[in-house]
């Protein structure tokens, strides 16, 4: 099955073969639809002639939110000493792409490839550039050096300056349709069940679908449904579950999204009495706020997950 990102890859190849490959590209679409993989595949095609996605190459520079150089040294020293990173070090990752990141990219593109190859710079995601970084990028986008290509990956174009959008050729990678998503699931996870009710959760995102199945999502989903129906007789299981969630960041993110999805599905049940619909909507709002507070105020994840599941499972 040819996915939207595959079609975009073929489109870029055709443009390259026509000799009209622009120097600046904006790759847009929702999170998880394959934009980064598309760029890594096309970068590989430009640099090696192969269509398999690459992560590293001497003529490829990938700019994303990262730790500062000093933070990297501290983290490496901590890991080499056999110590775990504490919460402060884990939170040290920069919240944005800075002007220094862009300047390093500009310097990279000013150099000529030793093999007379393309030079490629990728900003992933461009939505995370601060104002100074975005302004520093403008002139480069208008006049990229010869034989170079710049790819900006964006999950939300509304966060980009209009002047940046206007200086790039654009390719939009669409989410998968329900039919395409079902085909992808059946091809890659043939033992999957409850596919139809989960299609809305995946929302056309291959990335979200892969994360779900790679983290035993079906089992997690069923557990959450069971807990929200009756927590009284499952307090021990809920505590064990919350403990596992608090220790695994990927599992936590999955549980957070599934909790909100389950509550929203309760709200959207047909023929639900208005009083119950109002109750579930109120719970969705409160759980959403509680999850935000947990991340903003660094509350204990285990305690918050237990609190949410007990609240929902003891509603009767």
| CATH architecture heading of the largest domain | 3-Layer(aba) Sandwich
Please write the CATH class name of the largest domain: Alpha Beta
CATH superfamily annotation of the largest domain: P-loop containing nucleotide triphosphate hydrolases
Q: Output mean pLDDT.
A: 88
Beta-sheet strand percentage?
Answer: 5-15%
- Helix percentage: 55-70%
* Count of DSSP-assigned helices: 15
Derived from helix and strand composition plus strand pairing, the structural class reads alpha/beta
Q: Helix and strand string, N-terminal first? A: HEHEHHHEHEHEHHHHHHHH
Beta strand count = 5
Strand order of the largest sheet: 2-3-4-1-5
Examine the coordinates and then state which fold CATH places here, giving the name of the CATH topology of the largest domain.
Rossmann fold
What keyword list fits this structure?
alpha/beta; 2 domains; elongated; 5 strands; 316 residues; Rossmann fold
Outline of the structure:
This protein is α/β, with parallel strands linked by helices and 316 residues long. Helix content is 57%, strand content 8%. It has 15 helices and five strands.
